């Protein structure tokens, strides 16, 4: 495999070329990327469950109202906590993954953006690079909207619109363009 620059810390934004229903209109924060593969979490697919419904025990009581998202199709029997932070003055985004329940509780009680993710998105060595070459994904640095849960339903179109007129056109593509 040729040496590629790591994409860690970028958003992966699904394009209409990507036909996998697990990733339709998804925006993924790529938390890890190296020669061995990549790992990320879908930021815009909330699930109808709460932490209260998924985890039992006193250690999770303070996290009962943390929003839960479908992180991806891999290991959907696992739940992980992450902290997201957008610094408006620096126009920068930080993402801390695999928080312990104690760390997640402390952050949540401070009013920080803590989310729970069921499963994750993963790629083997070279798989993501191939999907990028096939235009299944576009990459973009994180924008402020990624850290607002009320922006979740529109996150895919918001990120594409922030990339310019060509990408804004992608937001109007029907789910099954071959039927037009």
Automatic annotation (TrEMBL):
It comes from the Bacteria. Pfam families: DUF179. InterPro entries: AlgH-like (IPR003774). One of its GO terms (cellular component) is cytosol. Belongs to the UPF0301 (AlgH) family. PANTHER family: UNCHARACTERIZED PROTEIN YQGE, UPF0301 PROTEIN YQGE. This is UPF0301 protein G3M56_010160.
